[in-house]
Design a protein that fits this description.
The structure is a single chain. With about 80 residues, the protein is an all-alpha fold. The chain has one domain (about 1-70). About 75% of the residues lie in helices and about 0% in strands. α2 (about 40-55) crosses α3 (about 60-70). It starts with a helix and ends in a 7-residue tail after the last helix.
Length: about 80
Amino acid sequence: MKGIETLKEWVGALTELGLMLLALAIVLALLVGSNMPFFGAVTSNIMSWVKDLGSNGLVGLISIGLILWLFSNRKLA
């Protein structure tokens, strides 16, 4: 069970790091523009992703709800 707890901590830390990098990329894209070498066109990718989910009606709404649930600040076990 110790290995599973360690794995959960690693996955949680990597997810948190990814979300921080995403937030940084959004802020940099708004300040600098979309031509950033490392982050690329983050804002346009997010906008097209939201547009695709929005055009799918109920399935898109369920997907957004599931994604928000996955990334909410909840304790795992």
